[in-house]
Amino acid sequence: MNDLFDCLNSRRPQDMQYNEAEHIATLKVNIKWLEDCCTYIESLPKQRQVCFLSKPTCGALRITLHSTVALIDRLLKSGFRYVLVEKLGQDPLELFGIARHVAGDGGQPTVQQFLFIYRMLSVNNLVRPPKRASVDGSGPQLLLTLQGLFDKEKPSTTQLWAHTVLKIVRWRLQSPLSISFVRAASGLCEM
Question: At the top level of its lineage, which domain of life is listed (predicted)?
């Protein structure tokens, strides 16, 4: 599995520790292992099939590995010397899916709605504590609590930290890149 993750996380040509033939061979070995693992799990009684790898995860990983091998093969035959596969994941699609889900009814947000949702998700990830955190933070109430720390006379370390978090939140909400993106999409930006 370590070799598989090395194959799927290649970012720079300097990171490539072996040639592409070995890269593809490693991917194919892991595809075979995955198929054997899925076959073994399906042969178990139902109550023992609850494993670390669910059927949807197994299927998604199988599709990812097969398509990665096919893409690398095609690009190498087209004349590429190497293929860096780190950015071939599904994370951008998952983020877009989350934004569509948040949009509600039709799930087809406009550019302005998508940008607003993106900003809100960015801020939410900054201010929301982890699930098992020892603090209680529920969105806007957490921001109000952070703002309330500034009502005292002398700023403490906690107040300075809260001020930094508030600055980051404001920056994320008023990012010039985001504003220019909306203007360009709306046709308000001169090119």
Answer: Eukaryota
